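From the methods appendix. Each design record in this collection lists the tokenized structure first, followed by the designed amino acid sequence. Records were kept in a plain field format so they could be parsed without special tools. The example shown here is representative of the layout used throughout.

RECORD:
FOLD TOKENS (490 positions):
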């Protein structure tokens, strides 16, 4: 049976998944999982890229030790926007900044004095946000100029990791589309934006289409790991693009939700949708594995709960998934709501305190117990997705009848049910490892083992279980939605 390695690396953890294919069915096995958190140092947040690279090699060694020696290829997907800089000799110039770097807000405001948010959106079709690569670059130029002056090549995170394995420098299309530097509907970097911001226009490595073989694993890597050469494939390098590739979307009336630390919600489109309504609603256009686009909104996901867990563990009140469900069930419903995407929740010192402060300032009952806070978070997330669905129908001009949820957060069955209730739509949840599966099927297509994405999605539907959720308590949820809109000002 043929096998490939799919590295799916998110903003909270990374994993190596082994995908096997017998010609009829896909199989997935987790080989190794490791934590991945930004490191706070000298007032900045960085990614420990060498640690990630070392953990990836460790995972490959473990796979080989388990008897998986004949590996056809490997692919890497990660979160978007972040990047590493290389010198002219190919050396990494320091640890890459995290998109949560607090200076980015100041950098964005200064950059927008040279080119407006509307101009940027009209050129790229991408929502203006502090995390975008364009503003990170401008922030470096303003506050760490020597780093940019010594840079020869910019590689986005998954392509930087691929470079460390194969030595080839490319920026794959789907990850490039997150930067707000790619001209909408094209695959070329927009030099007008770079020049307007006085940024170097020659450091971004050229873009390449998804499903391309970047090269072979380096001999030094092969010797260290004890493996035969492996093809390094640029599958859909953005984890959301990989996740959507795996979802068995049925028709043009299906919505996708890629669910993890962030939740990306949208619909596939052939071309970027660029107008004032899309921009003012905060939607964006990013690439898909087919070289097309997805009209979507980047929303808060499990970050809120993840950060509350950090506080509770610090206070000796650690929770787990089962305990959180029990605590939620014991807490009163529809009591307090927050806007999950309020900037105050982006990276607060204490998420629990920030949620309580929001409720106090909006004259709502302040959640005090863990159960009340968990319910506040999950109900607010679900209601925000209901709000987004209405806008997505307007912007796309489509009647949207069902929602496909994939990704690690769908393990939280309560969130799936609440989302069905808040949206009034059937939820089809699965697969859980959506990004890793999408990564793998991209490789299988590139290797010629699977014909195309349509065949791949059919294989996914036949190979991995799906769960279905129907809307419940619609009258109560409609009333809750009105209060949610009132308290959040949406």
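DESIGN:
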């Amino acid at each position: 049976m043929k096998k490939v390695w799919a590295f799916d690396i998110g903003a909270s953890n990374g994993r190596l998944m082994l995908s096997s294919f017998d010609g009829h069915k896909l199989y997935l096995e987790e080989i190794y999982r490791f934590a991945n958190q930004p490191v706070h140092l000298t007032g900045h947040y960085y990614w420990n890229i060498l640690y990630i690279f070392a953990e990836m090699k460790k995972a490959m060694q473990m796979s080989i030790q388990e008897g998986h020696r004949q590996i056809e290829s490997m692919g890497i997907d990660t979160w978007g926007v972040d990047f590493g800089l290389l010198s002219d000799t190919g050396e990494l110039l320091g640890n890459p900044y995290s998109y949560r770097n607090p200076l980015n807000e100041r950098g964005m405001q200064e950059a927008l004095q040279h080119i407006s948010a509307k101009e940027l959106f009209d050129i790229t079709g991408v929502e203006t946000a502090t995390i975008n690569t364009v503003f990170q670059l401008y922030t470096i130029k303003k506050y760490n100029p020597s780093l940019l002056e010594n840079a020869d090549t910019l590689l986005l995170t998954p392509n930087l990791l691929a470079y460390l394995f194969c030595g080839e420098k490319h920026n794959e299309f789907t990850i490039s589309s997150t930067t707000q530097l790619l001209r909408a509907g094209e695959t070329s970097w927009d030099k007008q934006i770079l020049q307007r911001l006085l940024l170097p226009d020659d450091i971004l490595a050229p873009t390449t289409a998804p499903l391309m073989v970047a090269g072979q694993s380096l001999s030094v890597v092969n010797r260290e790991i004890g493996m035969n050469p492996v093809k390094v494939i640029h599958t859909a390098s953005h984890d959301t693009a990989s996740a959507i590739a795996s979802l068995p979307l049925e028709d043009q009336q299906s919505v996708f939700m890629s669910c993890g630390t962030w939740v990306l919600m949208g619909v596939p489109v052939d071309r970027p949708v660029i107008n004032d309504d899309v921009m003012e609603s905060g939607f964006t256009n990013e690439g898909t594995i087919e070289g097309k686009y997805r009209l979507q909104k980047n929303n808060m996901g499990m970050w809120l709960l993840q950060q509350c867990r950090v506080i509770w563990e610090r206070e000796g009140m650690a929770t787990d998934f089962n305990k959180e469900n029990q605590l939620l069930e014991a807490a009163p419903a529809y009591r307090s709501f927050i806007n999950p995407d309020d900037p105050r929740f982006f990276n607060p010192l204490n998420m629990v305190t920030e949620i309580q402060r929001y409720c106090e300032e909006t004259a709502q009952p302040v959640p005090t117990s863990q159960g009340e806070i968990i319910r506040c978070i999950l109900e607010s997330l679900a209601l925000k997705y209901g709000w987004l669905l209405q806008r997505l129908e307007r912007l796309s001009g489509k009647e949207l009848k069902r929602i496909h949820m994939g990704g690690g957060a769908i393990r939280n069955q309560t969130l799936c049910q609440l989302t069905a209730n808040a949206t009034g739509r059937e939820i089809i949840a699965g697969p859980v490892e959506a990004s890793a599966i999408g990564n793998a099927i991209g490789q299988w297509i590139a290797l010629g083992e699977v014909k195309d994405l349509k065949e791949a999605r059919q294989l996914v539907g036949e190979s991995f279980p799906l769960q279905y959720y129907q809307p419940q308590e619609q009258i109560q949820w409609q009333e809750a939605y009105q209060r949610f809109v009132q308290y959040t000002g949406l």
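APPENDIX NOTE: The longest helix spans residues 370-396.
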